[in-house]
Specification:
mainly beta; 7-stranded antiparallel beta sheet
């Protein structure tokens, strides 16, 4: 079996505000050159640890629409409260994961929970945008949410842990439904570990480093870096530092045109124009 090669390393030392509650590194973006190598993933925002003071008015992002893709929110520190026009919602606590399918159209908002807002504290999260294939872009909106205790914890190496969020690892399966084949793993170690993963030849693989570092061949990469691997090959061998924490994303690419405009991701500009008109006409629901 052939080893996958490293294609590129992405990082963003700059941070930007999304609303007034999410101070993020916009590490992964769907540029024309990169899209082939990150699909079905479109975007990754990493809100690295930041301390928020207490407040009576929750910080976050007010009501806004989406169409044509899914958002995945992983909470590591702090709490996010979500509600959407499909009736989905709840508080996402540390270790919890939310998977929202916008499909044909949804309206939602995202704020720090009332409890976290009143207490303040460290906040850390990852939000992903996951593309939908053309045949599913107008699917009915839906919401999936699983708590920390509902996500399988598996042994990784001698002292490591793998949280199986989606897809398959060995003979275990993650709880989340995905429209296209996706594997999503949270990794952590206590001591140095040498680990190996096998993914389908032709699939795309990304790895976000949140803590610690990893060695790949003769190079070492530390936190806030995303490694993007080539599609060819099946095996990825990694040497992880002690106290490592990271997120692996793997998926079969969606080889279709991507046309994005703000909160809408479709296949053509005509479909984007229709999405804007439908939102303005109130066809994506209300909170």
């Amino acid at each position: 079996m052939e080893l996958k090669k490293l294609k590129t390393v992405l990082n963003s030392q700059q941070r930007q505000w999304v609303g007034n509650g999410f101070f993020v590194h916009g590490i992964v973006r769907p540029t024309k050159d990169l899209q082939k190598h990150i699909s079905p993933f479109l975007l990754m925002d990493y809100a690295s640890p930041k301390k928020f003071t207490s407040t009576e008015k929750p910080r976050g992002v007010g009501m806004h629409p989406h169409r044509g893709f899914e958002t995945v929110t992983l909470s590591y520190q702090g709490e996010v409260e979500h509600r959407d026009s499909s009736g989905g919602g709840g508080v996402i606590k540390p270790g919890d994961v939310q998977w929202m399918t916008a499909g044909r159209g949804i309206v939602h908002d995202e704020f720090h929970s009332h409890n976290f807002s009143q207490q303040g504290g460290q906040f850390e999260m990852v939000q992903l945008w996951v593309n939908l294939p053309k045949k599913e872009k107008m699917t009915a909106p839906k919401y999936q949410g699983y708590s920390k205790k509902q996500i399988p914890n598996l042994i990784l190496g001698q002292s490591g842990n793998l949280r199986l969020i989606a897809g398959k690892y060995k003979d275990q399966h993650g709880p989340f439904f995905t429209f296209t084949p996706i594997n999503m793993y949270d990794l952590s170690t206590r001591q140095e570990e040498e680990v190996s993963f096998r993914f389908k030849n032709g699939s795309n693989t990304l790895l976000l480093i949140r803590r610690g570092s990893l060695s790949w061949e003769k190079a070492t990469y530390d936190k806030k870096n995303v490694l993007v691997f080539e599609q060819e090959g099946e095996i990825i061998n990694l040497k992880l530092s002690r106290d490592f924490e990271g997120l692996i994303l793997n998926g079969e690419p969606i080889n279709e045109p991507v046309v994005a405009h703000g909160p809408f991701v479709m296949n053509t500009q005509v479909e984007i124009s229709q999405a804007i008109a439908d939102y303005q006409a109130g066809k994506m629901g209300q909170l």
